[in-house]
Please model this.
Amino acid sequence: MTDPKIIFPCDYPIKVVGDVTLEFHNQVCDVVAKHDPAMTTDKISQKTSRKGNFVSISFMLVAQSKEHLDALFADLKEIEAVRLVL
Model:
């Protein structure tokens, strides 16, 4: 079985899960803006976990290539509070 092919550019949903900190949202938004300058904060949603321990930030990115996604994921993982990038 072969892996499904992604045809770029495309809309690509991303979710970042991390610790609840004051700067987490801004750090994620800064990284996203670096990789997609057209991204605006109204396109980014945030949800706190039921127990309030974690926060998830979701957005739809216009991915230009696999390398573009790899670079974005690497930069997001550099944020100390990030626990998971999907």
Notes: The mean pLDDT is 93.
